[in-house]
Amino acid sequence: MSVIIGVDLGTTNSCVAVMEKDGSVKVIDSPEGRPTTPSIIAAAKDGELLVGDSAKRQATQNPQNTIYEVKRLIGSTYEKGLEKDLSYQVSKAKNGDCCIEIDVNGKKEKWSPEKVSSLILQRMKKTAEEYLGHEVTEAVITVPAYFDDAQRQATKDAGKIAGLTVKRIINEPTAASLAFGMDKARGDRKIAVYDLGGGTFDVSIIEIANVDGDHQFEVLATNGDTHLGGANFDECLIDYLAEEFKKENKIDLRKDPVPLQRLKEAAEKAKIELSSAQQTEINLPFITADADGPKHLVMQLTRSKFESLVDKLVDATIKPCQVALKDAKLSVSDIDDVILVGGQTRMPKVQSVVKDFFKKEARKDINPDQAVAVGAALQGGVLSGDVKDVLLLDVTPLSLGIETEGGIMTKLIEKNTTIPSKKSQVFSTAADNQTEVTIHVLQGERDMASANKSLGRFNLSNIPPSPRGMPQIEVSFDIDANGILNVGATDKATGKAQSIVIKAAGGLTDEEIEQMKQDAEQHAEDDKLFKEKVETKNQAESLIAGTKKAMTELGDDKVEADEKTAIETAISELEEALKAEDVATIKEKTEALSQASAKMSERLYAQKQADASSNGAAEQAAPEAEGTDENVVDAEFEEVKDDNKEA
Amino acid sequence: MTFKLFLDVLNKHGVTKIDAKDQAFDHNIHEAMTTIDQPGVESGHVVDVIQEGYKMGDRLLRPARVIIAK
How far is A57 from chain B, CA to nearest CA, in Å? Predict the structure, then answer.
């Protein structure tokens, strides 16, 4: 049976969930035992690639090679994606996209954001596989509703690189409402999903309809801001703290990557604490130093001060709410429920602003960090056929159209059209004897073609010369369930056709994806070897330590002289092999040592057994002690052991 | 004294303290808080432990928060 996992690929944290056989959804804990994994990748100094918690832990030590918040860069052009506060190097790739410069094993490498995302996806895949006990090849991945085609395609590519067939890309609020809708009583209702995550803000108006007993989800409108999220709240706080510190000490902490990292962690922690406490202390000893010695940062921060700092940010979430409501042609009173998604919505100020706007208490009965992954897993269940009564309809976030005479954008697919959708319209030539037309595909809301985002263009040529307005050229737009667009043009007279699949303006070619996929597989092989090496070394080291201990415990009189020399030679050979770090030799020498020491171990074992029986006798002799206090028994036990050694 | 008793009980259940000081930085069990210049300590080794970390068997309960030599 194939299982489709649901992955919430977040800006700061990612989460994976899977639908169980009984129809319930399980959020899978990371190997570190937490439901979410930091979306952080790092190349450690020894060349090992780290993902998640371990990457986060070494971030301070290695800021240039620790990549975080890569979701902001995925599918963006260099100019658009450029951020001022990233501690790693971002440069322009050949195709105009961003690329990340990273040191791997002392070698400068250029990585695409897709590759970084794929490493995170790979980790989520592995987490799910370990839980399920079998391979996972298919996934539903969520993206912010505001992601354009290029960003969606790039996310899909990242999945491909990670060895996952991305069955569906769904919008995060859609996934959240799916998680919400499944558990609740059936009936028609309209809900607003307010998702303030680590790096992005979305608000979506969703209609859940009950059609012939089927659950139907329709996204009426989405709006948001791709550069507003919890990270901005942190940044606000960092700026405040750094400014205060600068006033006092005349040192700008933001200039040096190491204090910046510490400040960042402290700010995030303070923010979280202020969601429950009224006041918190930020205490960063030895944050920096100047000629006068080390400097410390100690500051008290109240909730109201923090709220005043981020006031602008919270207010900025209101306008998208208004626009989304307007697009959905609804008023506040039409909304039945408001649900909050994303860790940042735990902030009391955010909750109260949302309450004031929608005039109702928001639902918090879904864990805001996990709702999206749960919804994605449910969608996975729908696709694999485990859930039958849910039908999900999604919409395009922006209008799609082509450029026509005079630089005007003619819209074929209006925004908020339910997808999948297919529309076509007949166009003609603008001049006499025109033999070629350029189909310029645009995305955006403006009438002026140049003000919208260009998705791609192609030519339809060999149109028979004829007066203007005569040829009939049918342009069709076909947008699939993943929001990926296919544009075709056909000359009705000759039957000639041209088409284009809209991908990222820069984007990755299929060959590049294939190449990265192979790299990723290769990398998995390297990881395996590395793990094997570490395990072999550990085994060898513990054997050496164990043998040495056994020899001292037995004492010289019980180890025969030639046996002792043999063991000692084997130990020193193994130590040599350990230094050389050659796995095969280490294995061989480990084997040799364990054989050399086998006889001695047997004797030690025999002696231990004798000890144990006398220990048992001693414990039986003090049965009252056992019942009363465990620690007393412990002490007794140790004493007995000492006695035996002396004897 | 009480702390030692407590640690002993934890030890009995397989919980061990992470001995971080003077060890090479290991991202699996250590969390780097900052790096400092420290003569006499090898680069990438732990200079000081800010907060002790603990393991239960091979599972990490809490990483040791450490300062690393540059």
Answer: 4
Query: DSSP H helical segments within A42-143, as ranges?
Result: 53-57, 78-81, 113-132
Instruction: Check residue A117 and give its pLDDT.
Output: 92
Q: What share of chain B is helix, strand, coil (3-state, %, to 5)?
A: 15, 45, 40
Chain A residue numbers touching B32 (CB-CB < 8 A): 57-62
A295: Cβ contacts below 8 Å, ≥ 6 apart: A249, A251, A286, A287, A288, A289
Per-residue pLDDT of A75-134, as tens digits, reads 777 766 555 567 787 777 777 777 888 887 777 888 888 889 999 999 999 999 999 999
Distances (CA, A) of A530 to A294, A526, A581: 40, 6, 11
CB within 8 Å: B25 and A58: yes
**A44–B27: do the CB atoms touch at under 8 Å?**
yes
Tell me the average pLDDT of chain A.
80
Work out the widest C-alpha separation in chain A, in whole angstroms. 115
Share of residues in chain A with pLDDT > 70 (%): 86
Angle at A437 between CA A434 and CA A441, to 5 degrees: 160
Res A618 pLDDT > 70: no
Q: Which helix (H) or strand (E) holds B4?
A: helix B2-12
Domains of chain A are 4-228+317-394 (3.30.420.40), 230-314 (3.90.640.10), 396-501 (2.60.34.10), 511-596 (1.20.1270.10), 608-646 (no CATH)
Which domains does chain B show, CATH number per domain? Answer: 2-69 (2.30.22.10)
Which pLDDT tens digit goes with each residue over A314-351? Answer: 999 999 999 999 988 899 998 988 989 888 899 999 99
Half-sphere exposure of residue A389: CA atoms within 13 angstroms, side-chain side? 12
pLDDT, tens only, A245-268: 999 888 888 887 678 878 888 898
Below-70 pLDDT ranges, chain B: none
Q: How many Å lie between the alpha carbon of B34 and the closest alpha carbon of chain A?
A: 6
Of all helices (H) and strands (E), which one includes residue A437? strand A437-443
Q: Which helix (H) or strand (E) holds A553?
A: helix A510-554
What integer is the mean pLDDT of A355-380? 87
For A218-239, the pLDDT digits (tens) are 778 888 887 788 888 998 999 9
- B/e letters for A163-175, b = 16+ CB within 10 Å, e = fewer, are bbebbbbbbbbbb
Supply A330's token pair.
């609804």
Residue with tokens 């990398």: A523
Give yes or no for A286 touching B (CB within 8 A): yes
Q: How far apart are CA A265 and CA A526, in angstroms?
A: 32
Residue A31: count of CB within 10 angstroms of its CB? 15
Q: What region does A385 belong to: left with phi over 0, alpha with psi -120 to 50, or beta?
A: left
- Strand duo A4-8 + A138-143: pairing: parallel
CA dihedral A127, A131, A137, A143 (to 10 degrees): -50
Nearest Cα neighbor of A337 from A174, A223, A175, A181 is: A181
Q: Look up the ipTM and state it.
A: 0.74
